[in-house]
Amino acid sequence: MSTCIRTLQLFLLATTLASSVCEEINKATRAIELSKWLNEQEGYEFNSKQEIRPIESTIPSPNAGIFATHDIQEGEILARIPWNLIVGPVDGDRLRDAENEEFEEEGPSEASCSAFRNLYGEMQKGSSSMVSPYIDYLFATKATLPYSFSENGKHLLLDILTNSHDEDDVPLLEKLDPPFLLEATACDEEAITTEGHLAAELIVQFAFQSKMIPIYDLYTHRNGKWLNTETETVPGEYFKVKALRDISAGEQIHSSYNDCKECPNNLGHYSVPDIFRDHGFLEPYPQRWSIPGESAHIEYTRDDTGVIDEPNFVYDFETDLVVHDDGKWYWRFSEKNQLVFLDHDEEGEAIVMWDMSNDLVLDELKDSWPSYREELRRISRIRNIEWDKAPETYNITQEEWETIWAFHETYSNILESALDFIEDHSGLSTDHHGHYDDLTHEGDGITYNELDCPSSELIDFMDYDLYEEKSSNYQVMKWQTREEDDDMCLHLDDMLQICTSYRPHYHEYFVHFPAQYIEKVERVMFLGSGDAMLLHEILKYPDLKKVVGLELDQDITRTSFQYFQTQPHYDDPRVEWWYGDATKTLPLLTKEYWGSFDLVLVDLSETVVSLDVTGKHDILDVLENLLKPDGVLLENELYIDRFTSHFDHTIHIFYGSPKVCTQVLTLASNNVDFLHHPIKDHGIDSYLTKTPEEDDERFMYIHDYLKSYAPDDVCSATENEGVVQGRTAGVMEIVNFENIESFPGEDLEQSLISMMELNGFKPLSKPAASVQGHVFVVMEEGYLSVRCWEDKLYCAADINLWGAFSKRETVRELLRSALQSKTVSDYRVVVGGMYGSKTLEMDQKEIGVRFSQNQNCDARRGNMETEIDSETMRVLTQETARIMEGRTDLTAIVVCGFEDEEECEASKVLQSDDTNHFSKVWTIWACPELKTDEDEVEEEAMFACEKNIIAQHDESNSSAFDMLVFDETATYEMMQIFSSIFSDSHEHENFLHPNHILASSFDKSSKFKGRFVAERYRSIPDTIVSVSTIMIRGKGGDELGWMVAYAAEDYSFLKLSKLEERLQARLPGLDLEIQGIVGGEQHVQKDLAPQNMTFTKADYPTLPNEIQNQEQEPLGRQSVVQMQWSDKQASTEKVVEYLTATLKEMHYKPVRFETYEDVGEGCVVAASYAKGSAIMVFDGRQQLVLNLFSFSQSKKRANKFVKTLETLSDGKLKVALRDEQPRGVGRVVNFEKDIYSQVAEME
């Protein structure tokens, strides 16, 4: 080994930059020498149409490469390196590695360790090594990798990579140290020696798949259209480099570190920072980036010239990698399966290219851009504020300095490009072309329901067994159970709904938390929760008169009775179930429902509540009109922004819940102010929810509070009664009359006809004898179907109305009275209606959404007598400081305007405050250099001001301050500067104590101050801040806002509520109120204590369920099938034809078959036969409803009937919705097969 090379080795072993005369030996020269030696080795081949040349570059990059001297055809061998010249793992290690996935996950791979030991062994041999010329080449051409930069150089690089100096906390990378270096240390004790460390470093920089391959590193990395090679490895024989495509003379020949068939381990997030870390150079375009804090993987490509259509691919949730249908690898964008591309134009500017054919892309971009801009501003601040001096100031070499800033520039470019694109295509202003924030309204961007959960229960079903999976006509139900504690869980379409283990966590809070604001809980409506668990809690209220449940799928209710042992209480006269699409159900409610409910509880997905009801209004828009003025609406998850436009008062509550960890509920009301309204103790027995005994307890779970005033357009709107629907709908009430004392005789149908006539209906049927106990009466307004079992003292009735809806309950009660039934069970199924109904005009007055204005449209207190003045500011400042009452040696910062222009009232107040006794008040005046006659202050002046403020603080050796107040004179530029200072977590910690208060006033001309506190300051990472907005109105309608940001361990809503009380007491001549508190505490850890996570079915009364289960006796199956008719020539004749043919095909001989057309535009066709009955209602357009009954409970028989009907219609009739229910006695809920399985389970 030459003296020159040995000299280089010694310098490298000391991990310093080589500075000897040997630096003059460049990589190209060394590569040519290596090539000459290789040409002498047996089995080595190097295509003569290529040569090694030096490369000049202004950025850190390889300084030598291989170029084509002649045209090369696709498939030509460029180089063949025999196996004996390759330093790497032995074959056995490589094979064991592929089979031993667990070992590879837990520690260094055998292949990596083998490669390391082999290279280290060859280094130890010196000149006697058969590959010593290759080892010499590696030493001579090795680059300085970032991990071996000087300490200050690494400090600067880490500043760019992360807002932390911790090498283990680098979002762009796993660590600053290359992973293989860490693996090598674990391979062998020798790895911790200097020489061993160098061996590992050489493998990091030069190895391909753990193999050191001579000459291959000269096929330098570049992707996109520049990539023109592929490799072929035959272990034990050779490694080949081949032309991937035709290569023109003069073209450089490139390989890839992360886009090749033989490098699958690098196909993940291996991108620009990884290449910079492992190889010491900046990847040329195209580039791939993984933006920190996001799952968006952005790739630069120069050869793509336009937007690429969304490809067809199968998405694997275990990886971010997808394959385009052109066979190339691409990356998904976030969690919505969108692909992201960037291009690079001829001028060198980065251009983002996304597939814009899907709106989800824009939605994701709109959600993501704040994090991109935050990162851009952070790294810009590093350049402008933190590292703005010459490199020698920081003891950083010029080479390191230039390398690091080249990386910084590349990183800035990618962020700017993405933001430019988002701005161009979304209509948003991302405000990213300057260092400083313009403080426009953007929201705080905080994920309010981010999980912070110690529970091992979190969405974990590894130890659960599948108990049953069944498909209803609406969704797939999956029931899972855990043997150790008998926990039972329900999933709908693979989404967790509820488990017995956290039943009280969800349903008690859902009902009892809003109920504490209601004086008497008399009327409640709930949507969703077909499992009847909400109903169980609602029925506890002693004053309850009616509870209405809207649920899509009655099969949920029936299987919950079976597995959760929850009762639907169909026999409770207070309980009213409606099954069907809520968008069809709500417009069918009569006027007595609207504005009558104390509680409306919404347990639906965001998708469902957004469904259209009236053509202009979705479900949430409509639900508010069901409430009394003093009522409360509750919705699961985050809806506070949506609700503030509908209600005067809104809150979020956060609490811990097993499986889901953090549960969020939104409560809204017009007359109930959740901050001040009294709490009512209803004496309800519950496991988790208790009536607050102390003032502070009532606010324990409230995370956010907003008070709003109705906008002018709402206040000027008139009440809109009755909405005409663009579709028809009807109601079929299913009623079971049991324990009948007056059993009907043969004249039942005549009695029904007479009864309906007396009550204003218009029957069309003529009396007829019953068929197997079945009679039906068809009317202009609907029909009645009654089937009786005399031996069971039971009648099953269907009341199907498409008109005269307001008389539905009257009909049921007339039947009950006539039959003298002691036990009545009923529920409703929403079905199709009838076009041309003769009662339409009357119905429009009785049913339909009733829009009413319940928001407070009265102006706030009239013109006040007191002006907002300096005394107002003095009181605001003093009383806000009192939040920290009890703490000693308080210190404060006050940011003011220009010293020579105006006084700083806040500073004077705190310095003379006898109540709070501040030991130090630092008054920061606006920097003189910010004063200008121009429209905008130069950024250089703001840079100087920011650095001066930081320097003053550092030089004073002050501890962190307890309070920061922005005086009303504080300038826009000073707010911008403090926004920049606090964006650095280290500076934020230096300036403010962890338990601190920040306060600022704002008015119409200085809303930027409010936005700084409410939005920017709240979003500072790792800072939990609650912000209260207090609005003050004075003489002449003048308004002032006062923002208080509160970060403290002793935080509570109560302290902010008391602040409002004190301010109102001291400023009686002003209209003053809290209009918002955002960002309260979360009690997830407390709520998930072990004693609160052990609930089972046995914790709820099961005996009533067991009794009902034993008593129920199904006597037949009823199927209510709603079908869509695609035949534009649909008619009564075809209905008759299809039903007749179906009965014949089923071998059902009708005893009674009747057709009625005088019901509107459609018809009713009814048939009774020995085995059951079929009644078909055609609405006159495209909907047909089949009411099918069979004495057999076989679903196969019902399916065959429906399938036959579809077939005979030539496929023009298709099932849209379908409900199945048993008819029988014993308050029947389940079919016979389910009763037996439940009995067996209990036994």
From TrEMBL:
The keyword Signal applies. The active site is at D603. Residues 1-18 form the signal peptide. The keyword Signal applies. Residues 48-258 form the SET domain. Keywords: Polyamine biosynthesis, Signal, Transferase. It comes from the Eukaryota. SUPFAM superfamilies: S-adenosyl-L-methionine-dependent methyltransferases, SET domain. Belongs to the spermidine/spermine synthase family. This is SET domain-containing protein.
